[in-house]
């Protein structure tokens, strides 16, 4: 079976009010067998409310802004690009996940490279991803 860790890119507020990228790890190590004998793994549960699907057209650009909340984002269609204040840009396509965590500071830019883009927003509860291996 695959690696027992899912790595997710996070962007966050830096000490100087800017933004940068790093990675967090979500451990997928709870093992159970299903009724058919398949070995399945799950992560620990985390609180979420208000799951939402977001859509933006190709070419859409959002200048510097903050994430409205900590949320796990999973790209369903299209390609989404994020820029941070340290000058770095990263892109995500279908099936890839990222974690906006820059709810304060200067924030980040967003651009739809291929679209439309659809993203599943999964707001995170009060707990920290530190519990998942940051």
Protein topology:
Elements: E1 5-13, E2 19-27, E3 30-33, E4 39-42, E5 52-56, E6 61-65, E7 71-83, E8 89-92, E9 97-101, E10 108-123
Low-confidence spans: pLDDT under 50, at least 5 residues? 130-134
The CATH architecture is Sandwich
Count helical runs: 0
CATH topology: Jelly Rolls
Total number of strands: 10
The secondary structure category is mainly beta
Helical content (DSSP H or I, runs of 4+): under 10%
Please name the fourth-level CATH homologous superfamily. Jelly Rolls
Structure in words:
- Strands 1, 2, 5, 6, 7, 8, 9 and 10 form an 8-stranded mixed beta sheet that branches.
- Residues 130-134 have low confidence and may be disordered.
- The chain is mainly beta and 134 residues long.
- β3 (30-33) and β4 form a beta hairpin.
- It contains no helices and 10 strands.
- It has one domain (5-132): Jelly Rolls, CATH 2.60.120.
- Helices cover 0% and strands 55% of the residues.
Features:
134 residues, mainly beta, Jelly Rolls, disordered C terminus
